[in-house]
Amino acid sequence: MFFSVWRMAVIAIASVSVSALGFDFGAADALYAQREQGSAKIAQARAAYATGLTNLNGAEKIYAVEQLARLDYYEGLILGDQGDKETRKSIYNRCLDTVESNISPAKVGPTPQYYYWKASCLALWGNANGVSASLGRIPELLRLINDGLSTDSRYEGGGLNRLASAVYLKIPEIFGGGVDKSFEFNTRALSSQSFPGSQDPATATGDYFYNVYEHRALALAKKGRKAEAIAVLKEAIERIDGGDLPVGREPETRLHKRDLVAALASLQSL
């Protein structure tokens, strides 16, 4: 019942710019749409959503937190894996705090938004911190993924399956890591339907979250299937170049293309 009510509320938020509590989502969303213009716009969008956290409740609060988490994800994505370690850790710690302090299950009930964004930001924090230095938090990360998959795995186009695919490629075998498990999660993510209330359902399916192809290619390469891995990357890059972009996630997709190109170059050099 909670999820059906939440989905109806998300659709309502998408069509109404000012909330029942007077918060101007339209202004915040307009700033969010300009995030590709640089750090100033990102900061303005973050400030706009953050002003509503104190008074917003329910689906509106969840939406504001989602947008804040998306901004943190985007800011970290701009820096990339080679970006300043401490800056990236700070971004993801902020994300973890925002999610936990506002939409934890104790506050709003179990939601895929909570589990996906907390798990994503924790995984990205661990990537910045280094896997060996973050071993103590791997059980926490896996619990978040598993608990989240029991809510609605369609959120963010199979987001938790996509995240699991990346995580199981990196973590040690003692924690269950392995290429076969990664590939299995990746296949589930790719076939995911769109989450109810998505901005554009046609491009919110798993095959439109282009970082899924990087994980798939890496898994294929580890399986000794280099030619298939290269083909996966080339096809994804060609789709992006051809304009087959997800509505509302164009900036992130352009950065994912950067990473796909880098992965392709790395594989071709082997």
Commentary on this structure:
67% of the residues lie in helices and 0% in strands. The chain is globular, with a radius of gyration of 18 Å. The longest helix is centred in the first third of the chain and has 22 residues, at 58-79. The termini are far apart. Residues 1-16 have low confidence and may be disordered. It has 270 residues and is mainly α. The chain is built from 13 helices and no strands. The protein has helices at 2-15, 25-32, 39-50, 58-79, 85-103, 105-108, 112-129, 138-149, 159-170, 179-190, 211-222, 226-241, 250-268.
Mean pLDDT across the residues is: 93
The residue ranges in which pLDDT falls below 50 over 5 or more consecutive positions are 1-16
Compute the number of strand runs. 0
Helix-strand category: mainly alpha
Terminal residue distance: 52 Å
Major sheet, described briefly?
none
Q: What share of the residues lie within helices? A: 55-70%
Number of helices: 13
SSE string, helix = H, strand = E?
HHHHHHHHHHHHH
Backbone shape: globular
Strand content: under 5%
- The value of Rg in angstroms is 18 Å
